[in-house]
Specification:
There is one protein chain. By secondary structure, the protein is an all-alpha fold. It contains 4 helices and no strands. It is rod-shaped and about 115 Å long.
Length: about 160
């Protein structure tokens, strides 16, 4: 059989052959063998078009994970720094009250009590124990309550 005869045979029977292949592929898809040539063919074609994009998306996803980890670490550092500042402020305020070196206005007490509440809430959320700060906070609250009863806060003169 020469090339021309083969070409003419395929040309005449090509449509019939394609229909037979499509019928066989459809039957294979319906049978309980779980072979799905259409899905495999579609995935292969999709991979040709999207292969590069998928690689780039995977690389971008890894970079985003790294950025997220760094951001979380930065947030934790910032929270720890804020916690230390609040603790120092509370301890300084309580020390000044205990030593009697300084008196405070009602507004200063209320601001410090707000700081104490924020500090306490943060410690509760993070399960952070701090007996020294707790005692200092208790001292501030007792001093505030006493001054509130006696109306004995520092007043700003000339205001």
């Amino acid at each position: 059989m020469d090339a021309h005869t083969l070409y003419m045979t395929v040309k005449e029977h090509g449509t019939l052959a394609m229909m037979a292949i499509a019928l066989v592929m459809t039957l294979i898809q319906i049978t309980p063998i779980k072979i799905n040539p259409w899905s495999k063919l579609a995935r292969g074609i999709a991979k040709l078009f999207t292969g590069d994009v998928n690689k780039k998306l995977d690389a971008l996803g890894k970079k985003l994970d790294t950025v997220e980890q760094r951001l979380n670490a930065h947030i934790e550092e910032s929270d720890a720094r804020d916690l230390r500042k609040r603790r120092e402020s509370i301890l300084d305020f309580a020390s000044a009250i205990a030593e009697g070196k300084r008196s405070y206005t009602k507004e200063q007490y209320e601001q410090m009590l707000s700081e104490c509440d924020s500090y306490y809430t943060y410690c509760e959320e993070k399960h952070f124990k701090n007996a020294v700060a707790e005692e200092s906070i208790a001292l501030i609250r007792r001093s505030y309550a006493k001054r509130l009863i006696e109306n004995n806060f520092l007043t700003m003169k000339g205001v």
